[in-house]
Amino acid sequence: MGIRASSTRLRQVLALWFRPRHVVEKRLRRRTPVRLKQIKGVAEELGNWIGHEVDLTGFLEQAHFQETDLILVDKVPLAMRIEVGGGMQWYPTLRGIAAWKVEKSWVAVDDGAIPFLRNGADCMGAGIHIADPTLSVGDFVWIRHQETGEPIATGIAMVEGDEMMSMTKGKAISTIHWVGDDLWELEV
C-alpha cells in the first residue's frame, strides 16, 4: 500500500514538473452556444466600431474568461467585453482584429518595442512611429508592427493620437491584451 501511494504521488509530481508551459491552466466558464440573433446587438456594436459589418458565421459561443466576457466563433475568441470610458463595450481581440481586418484606432511601433509589448508592458510613446490622429484619451486602441502590420497588443490610449507620435518618454497606451497572454494562448 505504501509503495503504491508513493508511486502515485511521484507520477503526480512528475506530471506537474513536465507539463507543457505554454498551455493555459485557466479555463472558460459559463460557456454556452448562442445563435446569431441572440448576439445581434454585439455584432452591431462591433460593426459600428470597426466601420463595417463583422462576419460571425460559424459555431457561435459566449463564454467568460478571467472576468471578461467573450464571443467565440468556431472556438476562436474574436470579441471581448471590456470597460472603456466608464462603460462596458464589445471590442475585437487580437484574433478578431486580424479576422475582421480592422483599419482604425491603431498605432504602429518599431522593432524595439515589440519584445516589451509581448511581455505585457504598457506601450511607451517613444516606440510609436505612426498613430491614428483621431485617437482620444480613453479610446480603445490596437498596436501593430510597423513593417508587417500584424496585431501585437490592445489597450487604452493615455494621450491623444497626435501627441503619441511626438512623445520621447512616458506611457502612451495602457495595455490590456497582447500576443502571448492567457487569452492569446487560450486553447478551447
What does this structure look like?
This protein is of the alpha+beta class and 188 residues long. It has two domains: 29-99, Pre-PUA domain, domain 1 (Nuclear Transport Factor 2, Chain: A, Roll), CATH 3.10.450.120; 102-185, Archaeosine Trna-guanine Transglycosylase, Chain: A, domain 4 (Roll). The protein contains six helices and eleven strands. The chain has helices at 2-17, 40-50, 94-100, 114-117, 161-166, 182-185; strands at residues 29-33, 60-65, 68-73, 76-84, 87-92, 106-109, 123-124, 128-131, 140-145, 151-157, 171-178. A six-stranded mixed beta sheet has the order 7-11-10-9-6-8. The radius of gyration is 20 Å and the shape is globular. The protein starts with a helix and ends with a helix. The mean pLDDT is 88.
In short:
The protein has helices at residues 2-17, 40-50, 94-100, 114-117, 161-166, 182-185, and strands at 29-33, 60-65, 68-73, 76-84, 87-92, 106-109, 123-124, 128-131, 140-145, 151-157, 171-178. The protein is an alpha+beta fold and 188 residues long. The strands form 2 sheets. The protein has a 6-stranded mixed β-sheet. Strands 1-2-3-4-5 form a 5-stranded antiparallel β-sheet.
